[in-house]
UniProtKB/TrEMBL annotation:
This is DUF779 domain-containing protein. Pfam families: DUF779. It comes from Sphingobacterium populi. It comes from the Bacteria.
C-alpha cells in the first residue's frame, strides 16, 4: 500500500522532542479559520476530530487527522510533513513556543499510486 503521509527528518526530530516533553501527540490539519490550513500538533486528546474527518496516516506513530472538507479537496495528494523556522499563522500548536512551525508539502499521486493507496480512517 502507498502511504498518504511521510515525514521529513527535521520534522521527525521535532516530533520526538515534543513527545519527550508532552507525551503522546496528535496532528490535525483544519480547513481554515484562525490557523488556515497549517498542521497543528496537540497532546493526544487535546483536540477532537469532527465527524467524518480523515486520519491519513501516522507521523512518528502519532495520528495525523485532516478536516473532512480539506481531505475531499486533497485526497489525491501525498502529504509530506516538514518543519520551518518561524511562527506559523495559528500559534496553538505545541511547536510554536520553540519558534518553529509545521508545514505540509503536497504532490499529486501518480495513477499507479492511486490504485494502491492506503485506506483512511474516518471519525464517527
Amino acid at each position: 500500500m502507498i502511504a498518504r503521509l511521510s515525514v521529513t527528518e527535521s520534522a521527525t526530530e521535532l516530533i520526538r522532542e515534543l513527545a519527550n516533553k508532552h507525551g503522546d501527540l496528535m496532528f490535525y490539519q483544519a480547513g481554515g479559520c484562525c490557523e488556515g490550513t497549517q498542521p497543528q500538533c496537540f497532546e493526544k486528546g487535546g483536540y477532537y476530530p469532527r465527524m467524518h474527518d480523515a486520519m491519513i496516516g501516522l507521523a512518528e506513530g502519532f495520528e495525523f487527522w485532516i478536516d473532512r472538507d480539506l481531505f475531499d479537496y486533497w485526497q489525491y495528494s501525498h502529504f509530506t510533513l516538514d518543519v520551518l523556522e518561524g511562527f506559523g499563522p495559528g500559534g496553538f500548536s505545541l511547536e510554536s513556543p520553540l519558534g518553529k512551525t509545521f508545514k505540509v508539502h503536497y504532490r499529486l499521486f501518480t495513477e499507479e499510486e492511486l490504485a494502491n493507496l492506503a485506506p483512511v480512517k474516518r471519525s464517527i
